[in-house]
Amino acid sequence: MRHRKAGNKLGRNSSHRRAMLRNMVTSLFEHEQVETTDAKAKALRPVAEKMITLAKRGDLSARRQALGYIQDKKVTHRLFDELKDRYLDRQGGYLRIVKKGIRKGDGAAVSIVQLLPEEEGKKSGKKRPRKTKQAKTEQPKVKSAQETREAKPAEEEDSG
Fold first, then answer.
1. Could you give the dihedral angle defined by the CA atoms of residues 30, 16, 102 and 44, in that order, rounded to the nearest 10 degrees?
2. What's the CATH number where 94 sits?
3. pTM, to two decimals
4. How remote is the C-alpha of 89 from its chain's centroid?
5. Is the pLDDT of residue 126 over 70?
6. In this structure, is residue 144 part of a structural domain?
7. What residues make up the domain containing 40?
8. How many CB atoms lie within 10 A of CB 39?
9. Domain count of the chain?
10. 141 φ, ψ to 5°?
């Protein structure tokens, strides 16, 4: 039974999988987008979002944790100095996975993982008023046949 064995192994042992994800996270924050297979993209998303959450925290402990995972010091400093400002107001959902298609060589489904730009995802300040329960339950009044007959002669008098 596979109880409590969540997560995709991606055809690798644990050390290879961890090294691959570290490299992908580093490349993602360096270039702001990475092209990879769908399965790897789905495995990359939670790791990258945790790194952005560490950057939003911004203290020394968070910086050291990120430096322990991300391969390049310059990329980590960029994450903590530049990239975190984009996402201070967001509560998650920092990445976008766009399906690209099928790779010609091996038929693998390919996706592009992108960091969301700063202005995207912000909603306008205006919200539409919600309908109340009373407004939802009220049925629009339908005129009966007699009311429509009574209304027609009044309209004809005005036009004549």
1. -50
2. 3.90.1030.10
3. 0.72
4. 14
5. no
6. no
7. 14-115
8. 15
9. 1
10. -75, 125
Question: Hey, which of 60-64, 89-93, 128-132 has the most confident mean pLDDT?
Answer: 60-64
Q: How far is CA 65 from the centre of its chain?
A: 24
Kindly list the distances between the CA atom of residue 36 and the CA atoms of 49, 93, 96, 98, in Å, as whole numbers in the listed order: 17, 19, 13, 10
> At residue 55, what is the residue type?
A
Task: Kindly provide the residue ranges of all beta strands, DSSP E only, lying in 25-156, ordered along the sequence.
Answer: 33-37, 95-102, 109-115
Per-residue pLDDT averaged across 120-136, rounded?
62
pLDDT category at 153 given cuts 50, 70, 90 is low
- Residue 139 CB neighbours (<10 A): 5
Residue recorded with tokens 């998303």: 45
Alpha-carbon torsion (110, 4, 50, 25), positive or negative = negative
